[in-house]
Design a protein that fits this description.
Length: 316
């Protein structure tokens, strides 16, 4: 008997500071996410970030919250239901542990990290949690982990299916492909080619996050017939992050004649705070403040029928 687990990052259980605070502690306390010594990380997360960032984050979550809960959770559950799978999260609930409990009698478990491009902070951390959960069990079934699917037609065609109607209706001057950012140190540590960030743009090593993002843009832009523009969002802290920055791109594009902009976010398979608020609200305001007229964010693939079909082929 085979079970399939769809794993995404997760969300707070409510759009309140009290719920956001433990979520931030769990997420940012992960050494894969903030790769710094444990004591300074603990002090930073628990003494500064979680207490002071939680109220502001909660207000943003409240603006995108749905009657069914966090958009990320709502879409994840809908996708799992359509595929006959189980949705779980790396941080928060339902947890990987709870999902494994639900399928304790399965002979095989297929684990699908819902991150199109590989990063140690997402795929790597999810596999850490999976290993820890399995280490506490006497009965360990056969495990198959689905690889990152940034170049799989099932994913690319689904993004195009969602994006094409938006482009046809909105008729933008340009399209920007925005991905979640990473510190340069994390990209260098994972990429087999060495210390130079950006050296892999003409190829795609299996663990180079930036190269995979650039390649994703190239493949999607060719399908959509648009110019490939890649940027990276969601920076946190003083470390050097991979670029170019989405925020800086939104500020400079109007001066280049781009008044109507569409943003596609292909490192996210489900709409969340980063797509709906960071780009849809804050990013749109940044774009307009610098002379842009209108910004439209393409929805993520969520549980679109094309993504249900595409992910089914990816899982196999």
């Amino acid at each position: 008997m085979r079970a399939t687990l769809l794993v995404n990052i997760g969300s707070p259980e409510a759009p309140t500071a009290a719920a956001v605070r433990p979520y931030l502690r769990s997420f940012l306390g992960d050494p894969r996410v903030m790769d710094m010594p444990s004591v300074p990380r603990w002090l930073l997360v628990n003494g500064i970030i979680a207490p002071f960032r939680a109220p502001a984050s909660a207000r943003k979550y409240a603006e995108i919250w749905t009657p069914g809960g966090s958009p990320l959770t709502v879409h994840g559950r809908a996708l799992a239901q359509a595929l006959g799978a189980t949705y779980c999260t790396r941080y928060g609930r339902p947890s990987i542990d709870e999902a494994l409990d639900e399928h304790a009698k399965s002979d095989e478990i297929v684990v699908v990290p819902l991150y199109p491009q590989y990063a140690a902070a997402t795929t790597g951390s999810t596999l850490d949690a999976l290993g820890q959960a399995l280490s506490r069990r006497a009965r360990v079934p056969a495990i198959r982990v689905v690889a990152p699917f940034w170049n799989h037609p099932g994913f690319l065609d689904a993004v195009v299916a969602v994006a094409r109607p938006v482009l046809d209706e909105f008729r933008p001057d340009a399209v920007l492909f925005s991905y979640h950012g990473l510190p340069e140190s994390q990209v260098r540590a994972a990429c087999e080619r060495g210390p130079t960030v950006g050296c892999c743009e003409q190829s795609t090593p299996p663990f180079c996050y930036r190269a995979q993002c650039v390649a994703t843009t190239r493949l999607l832009a060719a399908r959509l017939g648009v110019e490939p523009r890649t940027s990276f969002q969601s920076r946190l802290g003083p470390a050097r992050w991979i670029g170019p920055s989405t925020q800086e791109s939104l500020a400079t594009l109007p001066s280049q004649g781009v008044k109507r902009l569409v943003v596609i976010t292909p490192s996210f398979v489900a709409d969340c705070l980063e797509t709906l608020h960071e780009i849809g609200v804050e990013g749109a305001a940044e774009f307009r403040a610098h002379g842009g007229e209108a910004l439209r964010v393409v929805p993520c693939v969520n549980s679109h029928p094309a993504w249900v079909a595409g992910l089914s082929t990816i899982i196999g």
